[in-house]
Amino acid sequence: MPRPRRPSSKRPSKPRYGICAEEEAQQTARHLTVMNKNAQLELAGYNKHRDLPYYDKIEFDDKGYLVPPPGDHRLSDALVFLVVGQNVVAARNRHGK
Question: Which domain of life is it from (predicted)?
Answer without folding.
Answer: Eukaryota
